[in-house]
């Protein structure tokens, strides 16, 4: 699938601005970004539901820019469960093959295989209003797949489900798409969902693609500050470079010194540093040691497998730390004084953004 220079405006709003994207066959790509960034508009332009103002769309080797949705050979799965209420699950899943003229026997066998692969364990005469939310979405996915699409488009497909069902179903969704060697574009606002099932992520902001990469690349080494802020949680420090060698930079952060790996900066240059909460290392404060990077635990929150802590530093910074939950072993109490360090190579550095830090980090 290939999109070249796609733009779309609605009155005074430019929803898409010269968007280009290439996908490999069999790839599972998720598009994420803040509300109103253009991700659903992009998906609907690819589907032919919305007509773009300019640009070209290719599915496989075919240009489909001007084709209606029914001629693009797509499977489309919405957040709103769009099963035909007057048809049984079997009839819903078999709708695509019947429309394409498959004979009844081969169609029934094919649909049965799809339902089995989707692990849709319901009776053939079960109707949509008798299904749970998870089973309904499985049926909707099976119906989309039974149409034998060249490209699967998934628009917030799990958004209406409760958290437990959503978490289980996302892995089923990826398994099925991969087993059938389909190419899929998945739009979601759920970052965890996107990172856990995607081969690549597309990050969008204000109608443009900001960055594209694997989930690991974009989480550990994002090239843009916006990506570091949007994807997961991060501590951001405004800093000034004091010294820079070929391998290491020394910077001042609110009067305290911080060393990190890097090069190419000039003395006195303003930079922005970022550190993920899990890269923050906590140790008891030593009164005999330097009083830099010392703070007090203000708050502590259990997140299941990890503990999130807010630390008020003695130089008026706030640092978020996240440590594995080991029960009472190594538990840090509220009010306790701690020293923080950062794991080797974990600090990301960025030149000061031309449009200003607040504008670069803004999620709206």
Helix/strand class? alpha+beta
Average pLDDT works out at: 90
* Main pleated-sheet profile: 6 strands, mixed
Percent in helix: 10-25%
Q: How many E-type strands?
A: 20
Q: What is the general shape?
A: elongated
Q: Can you count the helices?
A: 10
**Head-to-tail CA distance between termini:** 29 Å
Rg, Cα atoms, Å: 25 Å
Percentage of residues in strands: 25-35%
What's a quick, concise take on this entry?
The protein has helices spanning 39-47, 89-93, 95-99, 104-117, 133-146, 163-179, 191-197, 215-220, 225-230, 357-361; strands spanning 2-10, 13-22, 28-32, 54-59, 62-63, 74-77, 151-155, 183-187, 200-205, 208-213, 235-244, 248-253, 256-261, 270-275, 280-284, 294-302, 306-313, 318-324, 337-342, 348-351. It is α+β, with helices and mostly antiparallel strands and 364 residues long.
What are the SSEs and their pairings?
Blueprint: E1 2-10, E2 13-22, E3 28-32, H1 39-47, E4 54-59, E5 62-63, E6 74-77, H2 89-93, H3 95-99, H4 104-117, H5 133-146, E7 151-155, H6 163-179, E8 183-187, H7 191-197, E9 200-205, E10 208-213, H8 215-220, H9 225-230, E11 235-244, E12 248-253, E13 256-261, E14 270-275, E15 280-284, E16 294-302, E17 306-313, E18 318-324, E19 337-342, E20 348-351, H10 357-361
Parallel strand pairs: 3-8, 3-9, 6-7, 7-8
Antiparallel strand pairs: 1-2, 1-4, 4-5, 9-10, 11-12, 11-14, 12-13, 14-20, 15-19, 16-17, 16-19, 17-18
